[in-house]
Structures are given as structure tokens and as C-alpha cells.
């Protein structure tokens, strides 16, 4: 499954109920499971030990297509806190199957970015950017991997209090502004970074063991050029 060798542990399942506070239609009465998160995976004890020694985690997320009262299925959305040096923890994703739309928003809400990615693409979430992943299809499951620091918990408060991201991606193709956000810029598009601006090339799993390629995840303060280039596109 998704190029994963061997059995997967039982996933954490995000239900539609948990998503109610962040849906475009707050009265959407659908129910049931929405997407599965398999956290802290490794293909061998050696890989797991390396990941943990470097304060990192490899996860898979599987998002079947869905229509949530007119909105594409998406993840709940969260920010990451700052690391001890005062810089937000970044994250790196890889699309394994299907297509993904990453909707990023800076904490100051001055920058909203949409990145369309397909299988093989790697996408870096820069420090300070909240993020939602959308499966913008009717018929394809999205499977993606991520590597992220083990040193923090995701923060959902901003997304819950504003009832979702700054924009909603609707199944009719409309990108609708969320009325809970007073003033936000329009969405700009960017490309997945894989192989450019210092963003590593995949497969993501093959980077396990490569300290140089993954140290930006815990020490983003040492990689300001990478993030500046990434945000300039
Ligand atoms: O936490 P959510 O907003 O539901 O997003 C889902 C994803 O978030 C993070 O990136 C985690 O590292 C993933 O394991 C998870 O699948």
C-alpha cells in the first residue's frame, strides 16, 4: 500500500464530526471517518532509531475523495509552534498517490499560498505557515508522507476560532474567502519545491539517515536562505 512495505499499525482517524468547526458549511450534517493518519512509522528498527535520535517522525496520511457539502475533503489545519531558537518548526511532505493541494497561510495573514502537487512532488511548509491539505478530486485517494520534528504538538486554535483557513476550496472550482477573516490577500500559486532552492529531492523515505538533508526540520534558524528562496518561488 502506497509503496509501504509490510503492515501498517492502526491509524488515528479524523472524523467529520471533529472537522465540523472548520468546514465551509457549518451546518454540514455528514458523519463518519474522513482520513487516516499513520504516525511514527519506519521500515526497520535502524530507521526508527535514527529518526528518534534526530527528533524526527515519518507519517503517512491517507485522504479518500469526498464532498463535504460542496467542499473538497481537507485536513483540519494547524500551525506549528516556535522552536527554542524562536523560529517556527517547518515540515516536509511528499505526495505518494493522487494529487494534493496545500493551502498555506502566514500567521500574520499577509501571505496565502496554494501549491498543487502530484505523486513524487515534495512540498516544504515554511516556518510560521499554517497549512491545510486538500484532495481536490472526486475519484482519487490522496496518500502523502511527511517528516516532521517530534518536539512539538500541532496548534489548531487559529483554525478553529476562525472556522477554517482563510479560503475554502469548493468542489465547483470556486476558491471562496472565509468571511471570518477580515482582510486577507488573494491566493497566490507556487510550485512544489522538490529539487529547487535547497529543497531535497525524494523519495522522502530515502532521506532517513541523511542528517544534512533533514536538519532544517529542527534547526530552521540555520536555513533562512532556503525559506526565503522558497517563499519567493
Ligand atoms: O493534524 P491535521 O490538521 O489533521 O493534519 C494531518 C497531518 O498533520 C501533520 O502534518 C502530521 O504530521 C500528519 O501526521 C497528519 O496527518
Automatic annotation (TrEMBL):
GO terms for biological process: gluconeogenesis; glycolytic process. Residues 14-181 form the Glucose-6-phosphate isomerase prokaryote domain. GO terms for cellular component: cytoplasm. Its EC number is 5.3.1.9. It is an enzyme of class 5 (isomerase). CDD domains: cupin_PGI. One of its GO terms (molecular function) is glucose-6-phosphate isomerase activity. InterPro entries: G6P_isomerase_prok, RmlC-like_jellyroll, RmlC_Cupin_sf. The keyword NAD does not apply. The keyword Endoplasmic reticulum does not apply. SUPFAM superfamilies: RmlC-like cupins. Belongs to the archaeal-type GPI family. This is glucose-6-phosphate isomerase.
Amino acid at each position: 500500500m502506497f509503496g509501504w512495505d509490510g503492515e501498517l499499525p492502526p491509524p488515528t482517524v479524523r472524523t467529520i464530526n471533529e472537522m465540523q468547526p472548520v468546514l465551509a458549511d457549518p451546518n454540514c450534517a455528514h458523519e463518519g471517518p474522513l482520513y487516516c493518519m499513520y504516525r511514527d512509522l519506519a521500515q526497520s528498527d535502524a530507521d526508527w532509531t535514527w529518526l528518534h535520535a534526530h527528533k524526527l517522525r515519518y507519517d503517512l496520511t491517507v485522504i479518500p475523495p469526498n464532498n463535504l457539502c460542496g467542499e473538497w475533503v481537507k485536513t483540519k489545519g494547524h500551525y506549528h509552534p516556535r522552536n527554542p531558537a524562536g523560529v517556527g518548526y517547518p515540515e516536509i511532505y511528499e505526495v505518494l498517490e493522487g494529487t494534493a493541494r496545500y493551502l498555506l497561510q502566514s500567521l500574520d495573514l499577509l501571505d496565502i499560498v496554494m501549491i498543487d502537487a502530484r505523486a513524487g512532488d515534495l512540498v516544504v511548509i515554511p516556518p510560521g505557515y499554517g497549512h491545510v491539505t486538500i484532495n481536490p478530486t472526486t475519484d482519487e485517494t490522496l496518500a502523502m508522507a511527511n517528516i516532521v520534528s517530534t518536539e512539538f504538538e500541532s496548534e489548531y486554535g487559529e483554525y478553529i476560532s476562525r472556522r477554517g483557513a482563510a479560503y475554502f476550496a469548493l468542489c465547483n472550482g470556486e476558491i471562496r474567502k472565509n468571511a471570518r477573516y477580515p482582510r486577507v490577500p488573494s491566493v497566490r500559486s507556487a510550485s512544489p519545491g522538490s529539487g529547487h532552492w535547497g529543497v531535497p529531492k525524494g523519495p522522502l523515505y530515502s532521506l532517513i539517515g541523511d542528517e544534512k538533508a533533514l536538519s532544517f526540520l529542527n534547526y530552521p534558524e540555520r536555513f533562512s536562505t532556503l525559506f526565503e528562496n522558497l517563499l519567493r518561488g
